[in-house]
Amino acid sequence: KEWLCAALKINPEKSNMVMTELLNQGVLIKVENICISRIAINNVIVIVCQYFRENQTITVAQFRDLLNTSRKIALLLLHYLDVNKYTVRTGDIRQPTQKIVDFSEQ
Question: Is the pTM of this model over 0.70?
């Protein structure tokens, strides 16, 4: 929230209201304990769609490397993809669902 206060030059109390409104409007998405922009999530989904065109499964390490991010963030994003049924987890691997196939056709 500190970044929001600094970026918008507002006090912390007002930033709570702004954050809540951005979440309500779907501009931001809460994933576990962090907020991510809808645009960033959509970009992740596009990247994963492209990956699954050539691959049947993905591991945490492959996903982390694909997005050039940390393991912590990769796990949060994979959890989001699992919960929202873009991927299905089987042990240590994820596979695409029909939802991600449909998304890639848009």
Answer: yes
Contact 77, 34 (CB under 8 A): no
Rg of the chain over all Cα atoms, to the nearest angstrom: 16
Residue 9 to residues 4, 14, 18, 25, 100: CA-CA distances in angstroms?
Answer: 8, 10, 12, 21, 38
On the question of pLDDT at 19 being above 90, the answer is no
Kindly tell me if the per-residue pLDDT of 78 is higher than 70.
yes
- Cα–Cα distance for residue pair 56/42, rounded to 1 Å: 20
Closest by Cα among 100, 101, 41 to 76: 41
